[in-house]
C-alpha cells in the first residue's frame, strides 16, 4: 500500500501502516542525530523545556549539508544517516515525547518495543540526498547550531517526502530484524 | 613534451575532479545499479533502487552531491618518474580540497580523532589522505575517491593463521551480515588478502576502484554469489542484490601470517581520475 501523510501525525495515521508499505510525508520534519538526541534527553533530565515541539513529530536522522545564502539557509544535500547509532537513545526519547515517526536508514536494534502502539520507523534510501533536497521546500528554523551543521536540529518543510518504506510498524513487525535473522541462518548454512 | 602545468590550473582541475566525483558515478557503477533494478523481484528493493537512480539523475543534472556524506578526502596518485610539476603537489591538492569544500559545497567531515573538533574545510593532519605511487613516464594521474563513513565503519580486518585460507569467505560473509543495511547496500566489497596489516587494508580499498563489469571467477565469484544469497538486499530490507560486485586483490605476505581486510563500499562508489602531462591534461 501507498500512503500520503501530513504532519503533525496523529496516532490513527500510523496505526494503519504495515511493514513494507510505502509512505510520503508532507509538512514539517525535524532533523536530529547523535548530539541532538543527547541534548534532548539531557534537557528532559533537567526538566528544561525544548525550544521546539515533538508532539506528533517526525524525526529525521539526517546530518544535512546546508548553505547560507542572502535569503537564509538552502538545503544542498540531505539524505538519511545510519539510525543504528541512535538505537540506545531512542526508547527514552519516545517515552518522554509523542514522536510519531522516525525516518532513517539501516534500521535500529531493540527499538521495536519502544515504538509499539505509538510510532513507526520509516526507512529512507541511504545516500539519496539530492532527491531528498529536491523534496525539502523550505528551512523553517534551526536550533542548536552550536552542535555544528550536521548535528543541529533543522526544521524542514517537505512535500511528498519519500519514498519511505515502513521498516518497523506499530505492531512491532520489524523487516530489518527479519532480514537479519534470515541472513544469519543462511550464513550458518553456508559456513 | 613538456610536463609543466601551472599551479592554478592544477588546483582548478582537482577541484573540478572533486565536483565530478561527488555529483556523478562512473558508468560501470550506474550500469550495475540499473542491472540490479531490472533483475530485482523484491518490490521494496526495486522501489529503492529506482530512488537511487532518480537521485543520481538529479545530482548529475544540478551538479550537487549525490549523498550528504561527501566523505573523507582520499586520493590515489600515480606520478611518472619524469613528471616535473615545479610546485608542491600535496599543498596544491590540499588547497583544491579547501576550494572544493566551499565551492561545491562539501560537508566538512574532517575532525580531530580525540577532541572531535572539526577543521571546517575537509583538511587536517593526514587529510587529504594521498597515496603516492611512482610509475614510469611523464604523466601524473590523480584519482579522487571520497569515502563515506556509513560503509567505512562496517569494514573489517583480521589476522588469520596461515593455514586458515578456507575461513576467508566466512569472514567476509560475517562482516556483511553484521553490517546489514547500515553501509547502504547494494555494496561493492573490496577484499585485500596478504601483504601486511596495513597493506591488506590498502589492497582492499584499491580494489574498489576496479571496473565493476569485469568478468569474475574463483574466490570473487564464490563470495559474490554467497553474499547475494544472504538476502540482505537494498538497505537491509531484503532482496537479491546485496553486492553489485566483489573485488579481490592479493599480495605476497610473511609465511607466518595471513592478513585479510574487507573494505565495504556503499552503492555510491565515487571515484574519478584526471591525467596531467604527456599528451593529456583533463578529467
From TrEMBL, chain A:
Pfam families: Fumerase_C. It comes from the Archaea. The keyword NADP does not apply. Its EC number is 4.2.1.2, 4.2.1.32. Residues 4-178 form the Fe-S hydro-lyase tartrate dehydratase beta-type catalytic domain. InterPro entries: Fe-S_hydro-lyase_TtdB-typ_cat, Fe-S_hydroAse_TtdB_cat_sf. Keywords: Lyase. The keyword Nucleus does not apply. GO terms for molecular function: fumarate hydratase activity; L(+)-tartrate dehydratase activity. NCBIfam families: PRK06043.1, ttdB_fumA_fumB. PANTHER family: L(+)-TARTRATE DEHYDRATASE SUBUNIT BETA, L(+)-TARTRATE DEHYDRATASE SUBUNIT BETA-RELATED. Belongs to the class-I fumarase family. This is Fumarate hydratase class I, aerobic. It comes from Methanosarcina barkeri MS.
TrEMBL record, chain B:
Coiled coil: none annotated. One of its GO terms (molecular function) is metal ion binding. InterPro entries: Class-I_Fumarase/Tartrate_DH, Fe-S_hydro-lyase_TtdA-typ_cat. Signal peptide: none annotated. Its EC number is 4.2.1.2, 4.2.1.32. This is Fumarate hydratase class I, aerobic. Keywords: 4Fe-4S, Iron, Iron-sulfur, Lyase, Metal-binding. The keyword Acetylation does not apply. Belongs to the class-I fumarase family. Residues 13-274 form the Fe-S hydro-lyase tartrate dehydratase alpha-type catalytic domain.
Amino acid at each position: 500500500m501507498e500512503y500520503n501523510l501530513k504532519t503533525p501525525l496523529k496516532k490513527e495515521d500510523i496505526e494503519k501502516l504495515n511493514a513494507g508499505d510505502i509512505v510520503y510525508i508532507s509538512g514539517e520534519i525535524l532533523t536530529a542525530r547523535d548530539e541532538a538526541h543527547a541534548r534532548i534527553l539531557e534537557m528532559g533530565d533537567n526538566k528544561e523545556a525544548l525550544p521546539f515541539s515533538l508532539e506528533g513529530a517526525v524525526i529525521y536522522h539526517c546530518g544535512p549539508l546546508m548553505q547560507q545564502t542572502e535569503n537564509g539557509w538552502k538545503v544542498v544535500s540531505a539524505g538519511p544517516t545510519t539510525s543504528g547509532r541512535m538505537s540506545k537513545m531512542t526508547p527514552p526519547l519516545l517515552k518522554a515525547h509523542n514522536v510519531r515517526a522516525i525516518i532513517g536508514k539501516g534500521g535500529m536494534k531493540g527499538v521495536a518495543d519502544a515504538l509499539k502502539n505509538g510510532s513507526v520507523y520509516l526507512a529512507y534510501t541511504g545516500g539519496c540526498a539530492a532527491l531528498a533536497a529536491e523534496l525539502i521546500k523550505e528551512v523553517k528554523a534551526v536550533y542548536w547550531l552550536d552542535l555544528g551543521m550536521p548535528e543541529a536540529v533543522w526544521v524542514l518543510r517537505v512535500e511528498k517526502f519519500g519514498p519511505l518504506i515502513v521498516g518497523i510498524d506499530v505492531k512491532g513487525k520489524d523487516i530489518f530484524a527479519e532480514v537479519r535473522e534470515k541472513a544469519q541462518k543462511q550464513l550458518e548454512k553456508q559456513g | 613534451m613538456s610536463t609543466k602545468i601551472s599551479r592554478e590550473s592544477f588546483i582548478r582541475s582537482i577541484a573540478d575532479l572533486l565536483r565530478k566525483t561527488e555529483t556523478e558515478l562512473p558508468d560501470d557503477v550506474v550500469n550495475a545499479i540499473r542491472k540490479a533494478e531490472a533483475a530485482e523481484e523484491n518490490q521494496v528493493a526495486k522501489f529503492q533502487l529506482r530512488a537511487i537512480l532518480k537521485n543520481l539523475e538529479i545530482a548529475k543534472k544540478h551538479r550537487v552531491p549525490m549523498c550528504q556524506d561527501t566523505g573523507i578526502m582520499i586520493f590515489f596518485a600515480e606520478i611518472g618518474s619524469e613528471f616535473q610539476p615545479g610546485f608542491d603537489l600535496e599543498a596544491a591538492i590540499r588547497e583544491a580540497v579547501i576550494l572544493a569544500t566551499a565551492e561545491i559545497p562539501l560537508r566538512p567531515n574532517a575532525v580531530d580523532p580525540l577532541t572531535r573538533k572539526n577543521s571546517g574545510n575537509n583538511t587536517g593532519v593526514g587529510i587529504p589522505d594521498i597515496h603516492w605511487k611512482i610509475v614510469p613516464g611523464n604523466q601524473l594521474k590523480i584519482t579522487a575517491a571520497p569515502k563515506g563513513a556509513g560503509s567505512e565503519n562496517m569494514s573489517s580486518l583480521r589476522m588469520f593463521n596461515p593455514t586458515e585460507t578456507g575461513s576467508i569467505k566466512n569472514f567476509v560473509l560475517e562482516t556483511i551480515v553484521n553490517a546489514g543495511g547500515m553501509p547502504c547496500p547494494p555494496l561493492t566489497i573490496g577484499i585485500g588478502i596478504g601483504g601486511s596489516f596495513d597493506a591488506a587494508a590498502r589492497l582492499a580499498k584499491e580494489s574498489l576502484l576496479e571496473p565493476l563489469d569485469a568478468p569474475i571467477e574463483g574466490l570473487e565469484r564464490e563470495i559474490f554469489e554467497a553474499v547475494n544469497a544472504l538476502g540482505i538486499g537494498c538497505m537491509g530490507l531484503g532482496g537479491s542484490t546485496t553486492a553489485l560486485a566483489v573485488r579481490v586483490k592479493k599480495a605476497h605476505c610473511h609465511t607466518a601470517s595471513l592478513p585479510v581486510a574487507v573494505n565495504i563500499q556503499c552503492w555510491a562508489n565515487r571515484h574519478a581520475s584526471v591525467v596531467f602531462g604527456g599528451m593529456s591534461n583533463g578529467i
